[in-house]
């Protein structure tokens, strides 16, 4: 609703409208740094009418007068979406969010900090929650988000421990907002640019950046409108000139005791005090200790004894901003878990080899998993043990693009992950990798697989970083997975740069592998794909040269390792010829023809030396493909002698019964079409029509009308019938 435009307040909505409108006025007045008298002067032209504003803000006015509403809308420049929310036309369920309700138990004595956080955001300044690891920064931010969820249109949680993670989460936000029409290429960069434009004018948006390494650097990446609110958590101090800083302290002894007794009942105050001292008053450590007591049935005195037994270990550790105490509590719990339920321990330690991001539970539904092929009820029992020990969180992750689909996930705190991994057998890394590969989608172009690809995308980086732990066969499997994910980045998101990054990582892994022929095949595939992605990053000359260089590398590597007579080398030369022709160089046609002639010689040699019928048939088919490719290049050169050679090559192919019998109907039709193009170039009109019509009959049964070959054939046939000179007419006729 444009500012100043009247709208009648419906009776049914009046009660909630008055309260919500008053809250909105109070929040916006704080953002604009306006006193009530100043706002009264702007809205009503009279400072003496501050009582109207005061009564609205305190909720005393059930149904404000329409003229009052209109005046305040104009004075504060309120947006249509803000007013719509007050009228109740936007349901709470429509809030766009990616956070899960986790019911944190460690919010004892944080009421003041919650209030401080709310007040900071009312002043429209970014809020930074800082403190040592385990002090409850993320818990505080999460609880605030859930309490205030209905007051925002968007609440988005961003794991900000790495730049890659920030980009990934913000791109997901752009997708969930359906901003794709603002970015034509749908690359990560385009999505982020669309999101930045949207953030400049957006309203009622809360973004939480969790585990930020450098607060000042991160906040500069995104321009924020007046009604876009930012909370970040960090162990690093934040600039007080940029942020409203909320530093969380450890709990004192009294608060720690209150927290312990809330769950375990009345306890010996001296024992509680000693536990608090040993754990440094860290909420995460105390939460872990209480969960241990609940699950194992031990009392606080027994738990204190366990801590004292591990005290020497605690002192031996170098200081890590308070995380040592948390580390010890997790070690105690994980050791007990091993005695309590070995299957749950195996699952926990396997999950520890994944990154600290949501992990889909269904990837463990296989014989290769650490929990075996359990039914859903048995699997729930295994996971429930981890939940009771407070070692993982479980929630449904809603895919931001397909809002109706949810993926059952678990996630563990970074500190839990580090402790569990330090105690895990190294062979479980291999198990984790097998689980990841087992359920990985294999069709990156199929939209139904996109949510799964997105969830798994963050996981790949962990295995790439530690690929030295994998066997050679598993490294090859990892490369295949990376090839699929690079394809997904391109086909689903049109992000050529991200696809290039995945392909370069795959190439680096292959370089580290042994001298095996399947490695060369994979390297060829990676480099050809990489060349294609580079070609789509931009259309400048330097990119085309880089593509050509990559294809040349593939061909040279194959020649050096497998010899210049290997059929794999012939295929590499044909691929190289294709990119040479696309380079736009002056002598590109001659260079391409030269490479294909070399490939033809290799195929002839392979055919003559073949020692069995299967290999001979395979070489005949390959030689036919190379000759057809040579004919295309000869035709494209637009030189009369070359075109006549192309005519001879195609005629020979069509007269060779062995070749014709090895072709499918569609492949034969494509040769007929090629023959028609050659005859068209030579202005042999009747022959061209004959070949085109043969191809037309097959294309009608096998290709859609929008297929490139079908379109080209239709254009060619119409032109030939009118005796129009074709695009390949010889320039030296």
In short:
The protein is 62% helix and 6% strand. By secondary structure, it is mostly helical.
Describe this structure in words.
There is one protein chain. With 733 residues, the chain is mainly alpha-helical. The protein is built from 33 helices and nine strands. Among the domains are: 11-90, lambda repressor-like DNA-binding domains (434 Repressor (Amino-terminal Domain), Orthogonal Bundle); 96-247, Rossmann fold, CATH 3.40.50.300; 253-340; 656-721, Methane Monooxygenase Hydroxylase, Chain G, domain 1 (Up-down Bundle), CATH 1.20.58. The protein is 62% helix and 6% strand. The strands form two sheets. The protein has a six-stranded parallel sheet with strand order 1-3-4-5-2-6, sandwiched between helices. Helix 22 packs antiparallel against helix 23. The relative contact order is 0.05. Residues 1-15, 89-93, 181-185, 317-321 and 400-404 have low confidence and may be disordered.
